[in-house]
Structures are given as structure tokens and as C-alpha cells.
Amino acid sequence: MLGLDTFPAEMLGQLLEWNPTVITTRETAQQLIDYGIKIDWVITDKTQHHLQSDVKFMPVGNDTPAEAALKYLVTHNYPAVNVICDDLQLKDYLFFADKINLVIFHNDQKIYPVHSGFSKWKPAGDKIEILSHPQEVRYSGLESLGNHQFTTIHDGFFSLRFEEPPFLFIAEKI
Length: 174
Description:
- This protein is α+β, with helices and mostly antiparallel strands and about 170 residues long.
- The chain is built from 3 helices and 13 strands, in the order αβαββαββββββββββ.
């Protein structure tokens, strides 16, 4: 968890129902402790002994905190990760988008990479935003609102097709 300032506490409880490995930054660790959440790893180059017992420390080195955590998860064959962040830098996630099932929660959005041919069922009127900027996107089940934002036309599936890049990030409201 890279930041919790814009994330609802009740949604945090839902994400933690299955007892996942919790990796956080030094700055966010105290918020998690205040919520009563057990931390497994803290991403920092400084050891803090006043945190919970059995907390391990993950060095940042030359990486961003997101990159350090994702390198660990990919190296240890984690199949999926939910990232909660206040500051979104998609470039931190590009290298990992095809290596782990990645979902990023930022503000009121759920962001994830999709490949060409992606389709998903959504109710009519839901908003979808394409955060990456491919050269050409073909879509069905969506109406363009301009500025890479779309709304679903009806209850049912929408789909996205594109040539380059190999994936793009989309966002939907949570």
C-alpha cells in the first residue's frame, strides 16, 4: 500500500478478507497499524523497530516503492497484486503489467492493464477511461465522451481492440 488517504476504509477491509501479504511504505505503515492491520513488509531503506513484531524491511534502492514491491512479488511468483496509492505514476507499473495480475486503486478508480480483445460486462451508463494512449482503439458497446472517456451504451459487454502497445491501462469507477 503506497497511500490510503483517498481509499475508503470499508473497501480496505474487503481487500484484506483473504489475508494477503501486506507490503506498505514507511509513510503508510502507521495508518495500517492504527486500523489494526498486520503488516508483512515495509518498503524503506531505514529500519524501524517500533513497528509491529515480525515486520520485514524491503530496500528501495534505485527503484520507486511500487517497483521494489512489484519486483519482490514477481520474483516470488505471486499471481496477483492489488495496489492502493494516492499518487499514480503509471510508468512504475508498465514493466510489470504482463508479469502479474495487476489492479491499482487510485482515488475512486480501479485501474488495470488489458490486452487487445478485452471484453467485460458492465451495466448501462458506467464510465470507462483509457489511461494509455494507443494509436487507434476500436470499441463496441461504448460511446465516446471525448478525452479518452467512454460510457457503456447498454447492459452487456463492451470490448476494446487495438494494435499497439501490447496492453493499455483502463480505469473504471469503484
